[in-house]
Amino acid sequence: MITLAAFSLLLLGALAPAKDVMLMNRIGPSTSELYMANPDGSGERKVFPTSSFDYHATYSFDGKWIVFTSERTGSGQADIYRAHADGTGVERLTDDPALDDQAVFSPDGNSVAFVSTRGSSHRANIWILDLKTKRLRELTGSADVQGDPMKPDAFLRPSWSPDGKWIAFSSDRNTEWKGHGNGNGWEHVQELSIYAIHPDGSGLRRLTGAGICSGSPKWSADSRQVVFYEIPVESTWDARVFQLSTRATSQIFSVELETGKRTPQTTGPGLKVEPQFLADGRIGFATKSGRNQGIAYVGASAVPSKAFPGSLRSPAWTPDGTQVIYERVDYSPRPQNQQLYSWDPKYEYRYTDVFPSFSKDGKLLVTSKDADSSVVTMNADGSDRKVVFQTVKGAAFAPSWSPDGQRIAFGYGGFLQGRLTAGARIVLVNRDGTGVQELTPDMPNAGFPSWSPDGKELVYRSFGTGEMGLRIFNLETKTTRTLTTESDNLPYWSPDGTRILFTRKQDNNFDIFTIRPDGKDPKPMTTFPTNDAHAVWSGDGKYILWDSGEYGFRDEAALYDNSFQPYGSIWIMKADGSEKRQLTESHWEDSMPCFASGEHMLPNRGTSKPVR
């Protein structure tokens, strides 16, 4: 029996034009639905009867409206919508390829402040939309508000004071790019402070100090205090990667606008975020760690201290505290080839599992996250899916086709956080899953192999004491030679065999390099102080695609789930490093690009051929 999802893919293939395709991976929820309920958790119901990809909802000051972010089909284009509080009368407020998110109403209901990456900086800034005239203006774009363009410079989570005089927000302006683990980790931590500014862009004030992450400000009813959460900077990485871990602990604080007096509102363990003053004097907030996920309250309360068990995100209460709106998300794997929003009209963007590549005869090869990180092949349309190598312990990372399409090389073992203690080796397997053999049994941690175009050699990453850098293994002589001895990773041999693409760590930052196979002429292709990595060649070798964080964070890092680098976007440049441009702009982490022929993506059509 054919499933509805399979039928939809077949129908899509039958009707879609033969446009070239960029396959890509997205680390984010596969669904997100808005719910509302009473403050004690009773009466829970969906806001919209038809499921949509909606999130980050807030109420108007009179409680009659909600404003929220929607991708509608989960495509990635995030825009601002509003609706009546009962979910009727949905109206789209913005329609721009940039990210629009985190909207709040002004007290009079005539304007909306929101976060957007539109504009020349492509950074997350706060904009204001006049709902009557539809005029837009950038609130945080002036020279005296903007920070150093070579540092993080995001303006996030706006909150309008009830008296209309201030907009509070969080920002990492003028902070440093820092990897976790004292700068040694791949993922960047985030240092945020709370600021306030007048709606005309004047009077910028900093309300919290440096050296910690302070986020999600909300005003008291008298506009005299701001409540927010604080979490150690290093824990912002823990909060998003291990959101169920009890290691990430935050507290709720409030600060007086005029005096700067700070008051702690919570103590003890738990990841507490997104607080809000309620009309009866309580403070409501979300908890997203351990067994205490849900919504909790501090202060005098006639309801349980914890309500809404289960994984929910972004709660917001009506001004009178009688209703709360929030989202429930799901991380079930997206279907292979799910259509996403295409920021470049020349290509059709579609979802894929990680480390995709095509064989000479058009078979798609991936590491499948929903098959315990095993090696999987399939037709480009997702049919004829086969597990070529089933993992038992560890992960099969970055599988690579031999040039003739008959063999697959991959790394097997521990590669990310476990690589310091877990071994890994390069494994070779025939296309049909037979003939498994280990090529590097004596290496401490070898992975991420890539074939030379003549099929005689493999370049791979080596990690361990005295074994840092890239190595080249000769399949005929069974010998290994050293290519580099620095902190290098993710090598990828060019289609013409003249260069090897890789990621190098330097100055606590990762950049893209190329080098000749003889170890000569290393060339940096990126130099921005944020991370650039996961680079691959286009099929014809004329372009390089990679993942970059150049435009900074788009939200508070502690609010993400399951995301290692929440601000990554896919970029493209020519093989000589020129003409760099961004290809995706979503709220999520986009990575693992792979070009394919549009004709080949249709069922039973042709073979894979180079694009560009």
User: Which blocks of ≥5 consecutive residues have pLDDT under 50?
Assistant: 1-17, 604-612
Biggest sheet: strands, sense, closure?
A: 4 strands, antiparallel
Strands side by side in the biggest sheet: 3-2-27-26
C-alpha end-to-end distance: 39 Å
* Structural class by helix and strand composition: mainly beta
Helix run count: 3
Short description, anyone?
The chain is mainly beta and 612 residues long.
Written account of the structure:
- The protein is mainly beta and 612 residues long.
- It folds into two domains: 31-330, 6 Propeller (Neuraminidase), CATH 2.120.10.30; 391-582, TolB, C-terminal domain (Neuraminidase), CATH 2.120.10.30.
- Strand 23 (283-287) and strand 24 form a beta hairpin.
- The strands form 13 sheets. It has a four-stranded antiparallel beta sheet, with no helix packed on it.
- It is elongated and about 75 Å long.
- It is built from three helices and 49 strands.
- The model is unreliable at 1-17 and 604-612 (pLDDT under 50).
Write the layout of secondary structure elements.
Blueprint: H1 4-15, E1 21-27, E2 31-37, E3 45-46, E4 54-59, E5 65-70, E6 79-84, E7 91-92, E8 100-105, E9 111-116, E10 125-130, E11 136-138, E12 155-160, E13 167-171, E14 178-179, E15 188-189, E16 193-197, E17 205-206, E18 213-219, E19 225-231, H2 235-241, E20 251-256, E21 262-264, E22 272-277, E23 283-287, E24 294-298, E25 306-307, E26 313-317, E27 324-330, E28 348-351, E29 354-358, E30 364-368, E31 374-378, E32 386-389, E33 395-401, E34 407-413, E35 424-430, E36 437-438, E37 446-451, E38 457-462, E39 469-474, E40 480-482, E41 488-493, E42 500-506, E43 509-515, E44 523-524, E45 532-537, E46 543-548, E47 569-574, E48 581-582, E49 589-596, H3 598-601
